[in-house]
Hints:
The chain has helices at 15-24, 34-47, 54-60, 80-100, 120-132, 156-164, 188-199, 210-225, 238-245, 251-264, 272-286, 298-325, 360-367, 383-387; strands at 4-7, 30-33, 67-72, 110-114, 141-146, 149-154, 166-167, 177-180, 183-186, 205-207, 234-237, 330-334, 343-347, 353-354, 377-379. It is α+β, with helices and mostly antiparallel strands.
Amino acid sequence: MKIYKAEMDLSIVPEIAREVLKRLGQERNLAIKGGLARLVLLHNMINVGKYIERKRMEIEDKIHDIDIIVLHSQPLAKSRDYLLEKETALKGMLSSVISEKEIRFDGRDIEPVRGSFKDECKKTKTLAKILRSRDLTFNEVVLVPENEKWIAYYTPRCWRDLINGIGMLTSGGWKTIRYDAGRMVPSNYGFFRLLRFWVEGRVTKIWLPSWMIKVHLEEMNRLQKKGLLPEGANLGRYGRIIAEEYRDAEPQLRQRWIRALNYLGFTDLPSFELFAKEQELLDTFKYQEFSFKEEVSLSEVIDKILEERRQKEKDRRERKSKMMSCEHKFIEINCNGCPQRCKIKKCVFCNYVENDKEFLCNLIFQTGDWKRDVSSLIAFPSWRQIKSNTTLQITS
């Protein structure tokens, strides 16, 4: 994995960002990720002559939370005490600035990563591990304090997509991708992450082939018919999360959400308020009460990660066992998703896919090379497109 390295000039970044980085500058085994890392890199890109749209920069300059990676050396369960001590220390360092500027910082904003920056070899491996696991290509950047300086480590495709304002999911993001007949498609969480950056205006275009939306909606429809999802929950529970997180957002932002959801075919409701009410009713009908906490502790985050890992490993073992014992019966699926038009052989019993080579769509995902499928870049739709029913053409 190719990783660029550059010293960041903090004199050109907003005052809040400078203050946060000043307070964390003496820390070890720590890296800044997310919006703050992007903000600092973007300002330094502009400083060396790269053009970034002013509107995007105005949005990026608004710091809503501080995302921090904390390194630990032992398995996560054994590192709990160390990580909780680190959480307390970080909250102490940042308490006045997050209180004064109304910035969120709790357990959700701390990502434990097993690794080390002690020597160059370990640092390279740890940085590669971190950057490979980001959700979108333009998030493949972290800031690391080194010798009283802040160093940015980022990938070539992060640099490319920050300049172009492109949102593209990666194949290594935690929970952002699932497989359908051997093809990578966004999960509910993946759609949520991709769309929020688009809706908020942090990217001007997203890479999202129309056939992926079709495949996703077909799967949601299948689950709804089986009674596993309530009708209308086309993003699973993330429809409810969107409704809750943006309930008190500016009207323009809520309008952009409903515009995007209409355009992609996730809902036909005309307003965010109606969509939010629908998702609330669906949630009450199908699930236990959905709890949105003002603050989440790192201890709760660790418990959730450990449980998700256990469930993921259990599911993996069960799938493997089912495939190993299955007497396969294959059906052929003619995929019209891309010019390669693959013929996919899939077992009707265990979903095993037999293929001689990797699908082109997966290779694009794995390499982050949207330039191989420029036609799947989608600009944010205008109201005129929605009102004239000019919705996205879904590949049949």
